[in-house]
């Protein structure tokens, strides 16, 4: 379950930010998770609760903003929303697609004390 490793990396980022910006606690973390990022949101939530125990983000709220997956269709030269990464273009049925959105996991913002 790589979501635990993601949460451990997130904790490292929170510690770095606390050191750089002088805060002691994180009360809320908002993450943007792309549909094509390969992240199971429920596993991420579980990992967050486990990894943040005893840290500056213990009991912090995790808000996950799910971003839709999009891709460029080479057949009809259009960016389209896709239900999954392997779906054909919903406009022309073409299969030559390059994902161009919904592939990232990012920290949107933090609420700190």
UniProtKB/TrEMBL annotation:
- Keyword annotations: Metal-binding, Nickel, Zinc
Question: What GO MF annotations does this protein's record show?
Answer: nickel cation binding; zinc ion binding
Annotated binding of Ni(2+), by residue: 2
**First and last residue of the signal peptide:** none
Residues recorded as binding Zn(2+), renumbered to this chain, are: 73, 76, 89, 92
**Role played:** Involved in the maturation of [NiFe] hydrogenases. Required for nickel insertion into the metal center of the hydrogenase.
Sorted alphabetically, which NCBIfam families does this protein's record hold? Answer: hypA (TIGR00100)
The protein's name in its UniProt record? Hydrogenase maturation factor HypA
Q: Which organism is it from?
A: Ancylobacter novellus (Thiobacillus novellus)
